[in-house]
Design brief:
about 70 residues, alpha+beta, two-stranded parallel ribbon, 2 strands, about 30% helix, elongated
């Protein structure tokens, strides 16, 4: 949608994000493979502390809202 803005990180161009979006949409790449842990939002501060202290081996941790999440 035209009213959304993408904000990238260093070294990634809008073209890179467009390519990644197409790969996800076309099923070329499944980003779920990067998710190594799912934690409740209330554990966010602990997750970040674990990352800083290198106690977490995960690639990507998803923090979820606990309301209505199974």
């Amino acid at each position: 949608p035209p009213n959304l803005m993408r904000i990238g990180a260093f070294n990634f161009t809008p073209r890179d994000f467009d390519t990644a979006r197409r790969w996800i949409e076309d099923g070329v790449f499944d980003p779920a493979a990067l998710v190594t842990d799912v934690r409740p939002m209330r554990e966010g501060p602990r997750v970040f502390a674990d990352i800083v202290e290198q106690r977490l081996d995960g690639i990507k941790v998803v923090l979820v809202n606990e309301m209505g999440h199974e």
